[in-house]
Amino acid sequence: MIIALALAVATACGGNKDSDSKPEADHHEHEMENMSPALARFHDLLAPLWHAPPGTARVQSTCEAIGDFKKRAADVPNAQDLTAAIGELEKVCIAKGSDKDFDAAFGKVHDAFHHALEAGHAK
Question: Which 8-state DSSP code applies to residue 52?
Fold first, then answer.
């Protein structure tokens, strides 16, 4: 189970599998292993949606998860940027924005998650 979790974590959030990026992959795996429980719960929601194939099903599933994103972000310390990004994504979902709008807003949620993760390691 630990190996499966390590493999899932190593590939989470767009980890590059190229051998040239081994130091980056190791750094990413280290970050993911040491995240707080609140960030881990957020990641558990984010990762499958982020890695889902692009298209209507991904948009719909992600938009349906907005309430869960908000609840899980509320448990993350200093998550103002993450909360704001979720709010932007929610607006796109409500407006049924274009795929480009959705991708940009969802990308901001993903980036804000990683910033929160990095901030947690800086302490």
Answer: S
The amino acid occupying position 54 is P
CA distance 108 to 103: 9
Would you say 120 and 36 are in contact if contact means Cβ atoms under 8 Å apart?
yes
Nearest-angstrom CA–CA distance, 121 and 5: 20
What are 2-5's contacts with CB under 8 Å, separation 24+?
A: none
- Could you report the per-residue pLDDT of 63-119, keeping only the tens digit for each? 999 999 999 999 999 899 999 999 999 999 999 989 999 999 999 999 999 999 988
Same domain, 116 and 104: yes
Tell me how many domains the chain contains. Answer: 2
Contact 89, 62 (CB under 8 A): yes
Residues 50 and 92 in one domain: yes
